[in-house]
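Task: sequence design from structure.
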């Protein structure tokens, strides 16, 4: 690992990850994460440029590390550069290096991040904050793989794979004229968008378990999470995404004086958020601590919420829960009473869906001899799929 220089200088390290890294680094069973995992596996072995987008804290650098760790470059450096953390007047020198006497204070020649990443991968984090002047120079380097240090009249040929990331919407930045359109398309050869944690709630229990085990090992604790506390954490919207979740888990492990994390131990921001939503959460009767019952309550709670959000559309509910539709149907048969809110399950529920779920307009089955009628499309565009139901003759 290189030693840190000036306060603005990034520390760099060689990252070595096995070929199985994507399956262990990208934690989650939600369909969106499985799709991202498949893209990472497919793209990792190439040298193509990748643009990773998503809110802060969604794990963009983890995806970059997974791409590098499964590539032919994994034995060479992965050099991260935070474009927003380096002063504008020093960024060019940091990226491309400089020769002796290039500017005041340049007493010796110095290699830039591109030269240090030669043969490996350069990770340009927060690339949306790069000044327009440097965007033009970056575009030239990406096209020609040639770097000219500041103050030099000679270019250097390099072999560097570039992975960029940003939490900004670069399309809007292009429209506003603060980001070059040609650079945008040059970076976005392979786009990977990471969803916010609130869009993949079914992964929250997995992430909580992962970070709880990690912090238990780090601090020599044996902490456990109360089921009701788990419900609160699942309901929370996590504006800071995975980074916020990890930090909260570490705080709970460090500060808790008991072996069980209860609702009262959660940060006030989480408890206040749940209180404002005014959604009742499952509770255990008296002093009962039956894990199976708590899990059933929690599971039914999630199913209730998913069906409420999708107006009873079971296929859409299964999608946001991150389970197969047949799995959801099985749970509904086994655990949920039949009521008037959601129609009872009939044979038509088990007919296969169309191959394109986004436009899966199903048909209403009539009585024998009646003409089949087309059901109207759902009004929710995110899940434009009508539910099937069977009308007895």
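Answer:
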């Amino acid at each position: 690992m290189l030693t840190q220089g000036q306060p603005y200088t990034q520390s760099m390290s060689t990252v070595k990850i096995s070929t199985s890294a994507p399956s262990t680094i990208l934690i989650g069973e939600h369909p969106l994460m499985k799709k991202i995992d498949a893209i990472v596996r497919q793209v990792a072995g190439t040298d193509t440029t990748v643009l990773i987008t998503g809110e802060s804290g969604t794990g963009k650098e983890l995806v970059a590390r997974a791409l590098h760790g499964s590539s032919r470059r994994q034995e060479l450096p992965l050099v991260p550069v935070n474009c927003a953390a380096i002063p504008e007047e020093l960024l060019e020198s940091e990226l491309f290096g400089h020769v002796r006497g290039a500017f005041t204070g340049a007493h010796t020649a110095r290699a830039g991040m591109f030269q240090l990443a030669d043969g490996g991968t350069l990770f340009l984090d927060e690339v949306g904050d790069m000044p327009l002047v440097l965007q033009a120079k970056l575009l030239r380097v990406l096209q020609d793989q040639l770097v000219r240090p500041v103050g030099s009249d000679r270019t250097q040929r390099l072999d560097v794979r570039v992975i960029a990331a940003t939490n900004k919407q670069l399309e809007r930045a292009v429209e506003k004229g603060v980001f070059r359109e040609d650079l945008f398309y040059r970076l976005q050869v392979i786009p990977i968008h990471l969803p916010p944690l609130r869009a993949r709630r079914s992964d929250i229990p997995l992430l909580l378990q992962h970070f709880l085990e990690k912090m238990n090992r780090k601090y020599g604790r044996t902490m456990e999470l109360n089921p009701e506390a788990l419900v609160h954490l699942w309901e929370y919207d996590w504006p800071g995404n995975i980074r916020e979740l990890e930090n909260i888990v570490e705080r709970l492990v460090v500060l808790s004086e008991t072996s069980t994390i209860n609702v009262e131990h959660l940060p006030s921001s989480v408890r206040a958020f749940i209180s404002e939503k005014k959604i009742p959460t499952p509770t255990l009767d008296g002093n009962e601590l039956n894990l199976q019952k708590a899990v059933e309550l929690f599971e039914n709670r999630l199913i209730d919420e998913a069906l409420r959000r999708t107006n009873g559309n079971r296929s859409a509910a299964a999608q946001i829960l991150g389970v197969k539709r047949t799995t959801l149907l099985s749970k509904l048969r086994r655990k949920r009473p039949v009521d008037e809110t959601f129609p009872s399950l009939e044979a038509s529920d088990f007919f296969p869906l169309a191959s394109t779920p986004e436009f899966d307009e199903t048909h209403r089955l009539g009585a024998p001899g009646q003409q089949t009628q087309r059901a109207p499309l759902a009004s929710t565009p995110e899940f434009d799929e009508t539910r099937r139901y069977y009308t007895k003759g």
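The first strand starts at residue 50 and ends at 53.
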